[in-house]
Design brief:
This protein has 246 residues and is an all-alpha fold. Helix content is 79%, strand content 0%. The protein has eleven helices and no strands. The chain has helices at residues 3-21, 25-48, 53-85, 88-93, 98-112, 114-128, 136-159, 165-178, 191-198, 202-212, 221-245. The longest helix has 33 residues, at 53-85. It is globular and about 55 Å long. It starts with a helix and ends with a helix. The mean pLDDT is 83.
Length: 246
């Protein structure tokens, strides 16, 4: 067995170990995402009395974005923070390179985003008749969204104290649901908030979903650039924080 095969085998073992460590969470996360898709779409449909197709499309695409945010920036930081508090990462950091540790977590949590995405697509297609476009561009766009937000979530978990992480993640969730143009149009908000959201990763992610998967609007390169910058920022902050612990 050559060096590349050994490295691949070690990484596969790390991924398998991570799956076993999360085996009790995975079924719960799947159910939560499916319930969240129905809750966001139909719950806000009843609350807002949305009648036209444009408002319904925001609920459908927003449900997908909220699901991704819930996994990447709420659930993942809390679980990682709990593992950090329990000493799991101190145990792993010494024998395993930091980039492999991050890559394995990205892979596991990226897969955990899929049930919410698929359930939102099914509800949008069969419940509201929205056209879905699945291709190379849409798949790459979704992967960029997932990994960018995951790296932001990991940075939150690694940098902040464990007792602060739940507060920050809940603020992100509340902001995503109520105070950002993800499940409704941006023209309902003051202009200064729209400018602010352009430089945060959450609204650009939802706009890319509307554009790449549902073809409901056009997005420029700034949305992708924003996600890439946040991904790099989260990645380097995570590496720096973990290397200090090492």
């Amino acid at each position: 067995m050559n060096n590349s095969q050994k490295r691949l085998s070690k990484f596969g073992g790390l991924v398998k170990w991570s799956l076993l460590r999360h085996k009790f969470y995975i079924p719960v996360f799947v159910v939560v995402q499916i319930v969240l898709s129905f809750a966001v779409i139909y719950g806000f449909l009843f609350i807002t009395h949305s009648t036209n197709q444009a408002e319904k499309s925001y609920l459908c695409t927003g449900a997908m974005a909220i699901n991704v945010i819930a996994v990447t920036c709420v659930l993942a930081p809390q679980i990682v923070s709990e593992a950090k508090q329990n000493g799991v990462y101190e145990y792993l950091i010494a024998p395993i390179r930091l980039n492999k540790r991050l890559l394995s977590d990205l892979l596991i949590w990226g897969l955990l985003c899929l049930p919410g995405i698929l359930s939102s697509i099914l509800i949008s297609t069969f419940g509201f008749g929205l056209d879905v476009s699945i291709g190379i561009n849409s798949i790459l766009s979704v992967l960029l969204i997932i990994f960018s937000l995951l790296l932001v979530g990991f940075a939150i978990a690694y940098i902040l104290p464990s007792n602060v992480v739940p507060l920050v993640t809940q603020l992100i969730m509340i902001g995503g649901l109520l105070f950002s143009p993800i499940i409704y149009a941006a023209d309902r908000l003051p202009s200064w908030t729209i400018t602010l959201y352009k430089y945060l990763p959450f609204v650009p992610a939802s706009q890319i979903i509307r554009s790449s998967i549902f073809r409901l609007e056009y997005v420029d390169s700034q949305n992708f650039s924003t996600l890439i910058v946040w991904a790099c920022f989260g990645f380097f902050l995570s590496l720096i924080t973990l290397s200090r612990r090492k």
